[in-house]
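Need tokens for this chain, all 204 residues.
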Amino acid sequence: MSVQGSVLVLNRQYQPVNVTSVKRAFTLLYLGAARVIEPDYSTFDFDSWSALAAVEKGPDSHDVIHTIGRMIRVPRVIVLQLYDRLPKTRVRFSRLNIYLRDENTCQYCSQQLPRSSLNLDHVIPRARGGRTTWENVVCSCVPCNLSKADKLPEEAGMKLRRKPARPRWTPAFRAPGQKPTHTAWLPFLGVADASYWNTELIDE
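Here are the structure tokens for all 204 residues:
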């Protein structure tokens, strides 16, 4: 079974701080810098985790790696032993992160659409001094974007679903509009407001 994928990393307070590779997670586990944590909050060091039975096929199967003479389950969440802090960062202001914040939904007509059918709209048009910021850019379908043009929403007879705002940063644990990668992550995750990736938009 493939061990490609991601492992959620928690600090000592069980707060998500990062997502790492399976290889890196095993390195941290082997060095004693981290422990595996299960959804019931039981934890394991490398030796105790390696001793757990691993099932490769069937209804109770696990992702596994093969070593000489045994299989070891792939951890999906690890907790760092000496790291208390949360990373100081922010949500990158990108097209895909705006789509994620707005749930791929036009903020005027409330249609949820594929990203290929969506545009970005400046609530206060740039031609009228509107800036390219979290607080002034929303997801819009093409017909609403064309209908609004260079008008304010109220001038176009349109109303925003909600006031746009900068989302709170959380670790990059899912692709836009999709569920978390592994169900084992769910007990340790809050609401995902954005993914931390992609090209940043610029306020020109």
